[in-house]
């Protein structure tokens, strides 16, 4: 029922709207990549080929389900526990609807539903949920909670967001850019904003995909020093450029993609007045874009505040924020399928 068609020409005939330049013409070592049963706490732990395979699977599922209308109950009979210490629109909706679309049963759990780390230890929660579900996604305040869950669970753990990393967001961002530009290698991404978990995930991923990274953060809001050192090592290993500055315009110079995020994350509300002062001049506008490459685009993981990016950019044709938000669904689906099954994509390998 789910036979794999390996012929490139057969795929072109079946999917006539696919641009040839977006795909390789033959399968590669990515065919051999398998991470069934693994956890994803940070993309630091995933190789270049593993990240590429996740994007390939995600694009393949999107093509088959969204564009071809196929029903693929790949996760039928399986369930996922979704632990949310922090609220979210995209993480909840993408995971819940995606798992259900694949035939599985999602279970949404807030701090009012379970007693993670309070009336019941994280260790006990991990062991209990391992006996009841096939997968656990946790959106938490402290990354150490994920580390403990992964240590004690016997099922894969997915980081739905922590104070240190947000890997599932970055998968969606790079799928969006791959779709828009046709390939990723050689692109330059400029981060203009806080040195936060989303930036950390960019820094653990960009070089592995051949992407250059330019970063502007205000003084006192720099990314984690250990993450910076690891990113420097990755850039050297993969031959990409990593540039750090406090000047937004300098960071935007020659870039293909301008990216920002909230300046005030959940739990930082008391710092709002000071942060707005410290981030003065960091709003992304068309003036910022004038420093970038002629083909520049804009990303934001949402929710967005106007001080971070003005309406002229946010709602412009250059903005990819809504395809980016939709791709949260296809990439989390791709990840869940990869961790729980031996799925092999139908379409040829994406061009990276």
Automatic annotation (TrEMBL):
Its main location: mitochondrion. Pathway: Nitrogen metabolism; urea cycle; L-citrulline from L-ornithine and carbamoyl phosphate: step 1/1. The keyword rRNA-binding does not apply. Residues 38-179 form the Aspartate/ornithine carbamoyltransferase carbamoyl-P binding domain. Gene3D superfamilies: Aspartate/ornithine carbamoyltransferase. One of its GO terms (molecular function) is amino acid binding. Keywords: Amino-acid biosynthesis, Arginine biosynthesis, Mitochondrion, Transferase, Transit peptide, Urea cycle. GO terms for biological process: citrulline biosynthetic process; L-arginine biosynthetic process via ornithine; urea cycle. It is found in: Mitochondrion matrix. Its EC number is 2.1.3.3. It comes from the Eukaryota. GO terms for cellular component: mitochondrial matrix. Residues 186-338 form the Aspartate/ornithine carbamoyltransferase Asp/Orn-binding domain. Belongs to the aspartate/ornithine carbamoyltransferase superfamily. OTCase family. Homotrimer. NCBIfam families: orni_carb_tr (TIGR00658), PRK00779.1 (NF001986). This is ornithine carbamoyltransferase. It comes from Synaphobranchus kaupii (Kaup's arrowtooth eel).
